[in-house]
Structures are given as C-alpha cells and as structure tokens.
Amino acid sequence: MVYLSAGRLRETKSPARQTAAVFRAVRIEREELAAVRLFLEAAEREKATVELAREAQRALIAVGAPRGNLMAASVGGSNG
C-alpha cells in the first residue's frame, strides 16, 4: 500500500498482472478474481488506490493464498 500512498502507481502494474494470472491459473472463484481484476484494471490505468489493493488483499486471504506479488509490491515488501 506504500507505493500507492506515495503515488507510485507504475510499480503496481506488474504485480497486479502476475496476481491475476495466478488466480486464473488456479481457478479461483469469480468473486475473489473480480477483486483482483478490478485492481489490475486500475493499476493498468495508473488509477489504483489503497482501497482497491486492500480489497484484492482480502480476496487473496479469503482463498488461502500466500501474500505474494501484489501485496509485496504494494506495501514495499511487508505483509500488511
């Protein structure tokens, strides 16, 4: 979330893409994928927000996924 809070929107693109690809690959449920997809689309447009990142993070946690690329980049490598 630190990158987003600092206005470093470009750094969210790649991790958002990677996270969405993982969700598709492991067939994550539509609701959880939707949260990550919203974040991905916002990141692509450099319009991502901390709240969208949090929603995506909640979706990751809900499916038991480890906190990975999306959150690591968004919080500068920390887990929360």
Task: Write down the overall mean pLDDT.
Answer: 75
Give the low-pLDDT segments.
71-80
Strand percentage lies at under 5%
* CA-based gyration radius: 11 Å
How does the major sheet shape up? none
Helix-strand makeup class: mainly alpha
Keywords, please?
single chain; 80 residues; mainly alpha; globular; disordered C terminus
Brief overview:
Helices cover 64% and strands 0% of the residues. It is an all-alpha fold and 80 residues long.
How does this model look, in words?
- 64% of the residues lie in helices and 0% in strands.
- With 80 residues, it is mainly alpha-helical.
- The termini are close together.
- The C terminus is likely disordered.
Protein topology:
Layout: H1 2-5, H2 13-25, H3 30-44, H4 50-62, H5 69-74
Helix pairs in contact: 2-3, 3-4
